[in-house]
Amino acid sequence: MPPKRKAAESATERTTKTRRASAKEAPAAKPSKSAPATKKGAKDNTKATTTPSGLDPTTFTLERVQAMFDRYTDEDDSNIIGAEGMERLCTDASVPMDGALPLLITWSVNAKTLGTITRSEFTDSFGKLKIDTPEKMALMALDLNFLFFGYNITEQASRMSLANNRQDSDAYDRTQLRSYQRNAESAYAKFYSFCFVLVKPPQSRNIDMETAAAFWSVILAPKYPIAGELLEFVTEKGTYKAVTKDLWSMTLEFCKTVQPDLTGYDEEEAAWPTLLDDFIEWKKVKATANTDDAVMSD
């Protein structure tokens, strides 16, 4: 599950309860044997390869979307997938829980509550995307991950035969993905803003720094190198307690504008939040100290 507020118990911090086994997908049809030689001009309908059953677009139905949801519902509420159900879904999809992929899945269904996906969120969104198997869901998340972060989860993709198998091109409806591809930075900004709203406690205007740092580590640091140093600074300083919506938004803009060597930082025109100004000063002091150490060692 994605990182959670301090008060919330993450799925990875709890012992997973024993669940009934998920209904198995029907096995993929075996490739037909080579047909006898045909006369010249006759059609040969034999396929050279077959699409993995979990990625077969011809199997899609809305009923299968409902059935997929039902496999992961909460024991106490059949209309939601909670933290444990999400963990089982990601496990079946070979999606790791400790990165951005679960958050991308949560964003794709426009979930309103951290750690919970409702039946309507799931079925409405995946119905439009034509996703009715964990494998198709994983492929969709991997596509978004590649678009936003420029790399793929190769180990997971390889296990699912996605990395080198391009028969998945029609596995789900990529209309929305193509719209994101036309302006990837705008799409990423929407995802980034969504994460703040998702994790913000009800009736609160801020999120605590510990939660913000956990999210930044999986949605900001992999995209912008300077974000890793910012997280190091926040941890070392230890005095920042909360992140406002403005600071959350400006941190993204800062990471897009300023390079690790501070190229792009204009001291005369800078109007960043205090935390980011403090970070710049910290980097300058650190750079000076490193230079002095290098001179002394010579």
Automatic annotation (TrEMBL):
InterPro entries: DCN-prot (IPR014764), DCN1-like_PONY (IPR042460), PONY_dom (IPR005176). Signal peptide: none annotated. Residues 60-284 form the DCUN1 domain. Residues 24-39 have a biased composition (Low complexity). It comes from the Eukaryota. GO terms for biological process: protein neddylation. Pfam families: Cullin_binding. Coiled coil: none annotated. GO terms for molecular function: cullin family protein binding; ubiquitin conjugating enzyme binding; ubiquitin-like protein binding. Residues 1-59 are annotated as: Disordered. Neddylation of cullins play an essential role in the regulation of SCF-type complexes activity. This is Defective in cullin neddylation protein. It comes from Rhizoctonia solani.
